[in-house]
Amino acid sequence: MTQCVITAKIGTMPRWDPKAEERLRNAALELFLEHGYENVTVTQITERAGLTRRTFSRYFTDKRDVLFAGSEQLPPALADAVVRAGDTLAPFEALLTALVEIAGVFADRVPHAARRRAVIKSSPELQERERTKFAAVTDALADALQQRGAAASQALLLAHVGAAIFQTAFEWWTDQPDHADFPTRIREAATELAANVGGSTPSAE
Amino acid sequence: MTQCVITAKIGTMPRWDPKAEERLRNAALELFLEHGYENVTVTQITERAGLTRRTFSRYFTDKRDVLFAGSEQLPPALADAVVRAGDTLAPFEALLTALVEIAGVFADRVPHAARRRAVIKSSPELQERERTKFAAVTDALADALQQRGAAASQALLLAHVGAAIFQTAFEWWTDQPDHADFPTRIREAATELAANVGGSTPSAE
Fold first, then answer.
1. Beta-strand (E) ranges in chain B?
2. Which residue of B101, B129, B197, B203 is the best one to mutate when testing the A interface, meaning the one whose CB has the most A CBs within 10 A?
3. For residues B101, A164, A183 and B146, what is the CA-based torsion angle, rounded to 10 degrees?
């Protein structure tokens, strides 16, 4: 149930024709990879999808929006999940629970995620946009952890690390989508981090 | 000795007149904070510093460069320090040693760091530039860890987390510059991370 609510919240808001949106997204990703993001026009996207420009405008503001539509909902969704995580959980556990929950929302995006990432990698402008998104994720996580009672300095550290885990697990997942799903990758990243960090304390030089 | 070499490498490359550079930097930071970064011209900066535009051009390409000069040397300096760290160190220990070493280079920047950060916070354009810098740090750290033999996936995770520690410790330090120096803040962040991460493994939902 929670899952459904969140799925509805992120990126797949009820629209008139999900198939049209899907066709436009597929066409856009194909074209971006074929010709380079900068060289593709909205007209080309709509032609490839066999739809009108007017239909395009119903779903996306511009071609960049095809890649980022709904992403403004990621920070609040993550923050909300952190706040909702069980009262007894320590801050890092609450953070992980939230990351795993929201990662589950991306399950139906497997076919897009790897291609989307390849497009973003190809363009400094899109990379900037993607970094801005993750900066907003960090801010939202820090606020949410503070709302749970974490000190500001602890919240900031864990928020940065949480964003790092989310981003890394996302890259692992999209690099090998058949290996494990995104939530599993989040858990793996946290386990690997604990194994690497746990034993070592920063040594004096 | 190593310290000196690194200091020379980052941002304080031998120039003709370190005092002129310092005066320009101080004038720029003052003006940015007084009038807002967008509203300040290079002419105002040189007037406030009592120097010519020609002198300005000797040190900086434009007003943004006053804030970022030398920062392109941070990623390679960190990567170099990771590669140089003792052979016997585990990846995360090598990473920390490198972060602590390079943080030491910033010691003489205390008076600037907090004001610089306040200016950057005030401008989306500058925030973007700062994020681009940290993305380059992450990439450089990941490469260096792989050079030490870490698997690509581990290197990516630790690089993201290393950048998160560096950034958080930097914010802690500039928030309270009299509390502890930057290298100490790096060690504190790593200790706090270990304390938070160590005990908890990601729980299944």
1. none
2. B197
3. -50
Residue B165 forms contact with A (CB below 8 Å): yes
User: Of A149, A13, A23, A167, nearest to B160 (Cα)?
Assistant: A167
Residues 104-163 of A with CB under 8 A from B: 127-128, 131-132, 135, 153-154, 156-158, 160-161, 163
A141-165 pLDDT, tens digit per residue, is 999 999 999 999 999 999 999 999 9
Among A107-116, B8-17, B42-51, name the one with the lowest average pLDDT.
B8-17
Which ranges constitute the DSSP H helices of chain A? 2-9, 18-35, 42-49, 53-59, 63-68, 74-84, 91-105, 110-121, 124-147, 152-175, 182-198
Interface predicted TM-score (ipTM): 0.80
**Nearest Cβ partner of A160 from B156, B164, B202?**
B164
Q: How buried is residue A125: exposed, middle or buried, by Cβ count under 10 Å (0-12/13-18/19+)? A: exposed
pTM: 0.83
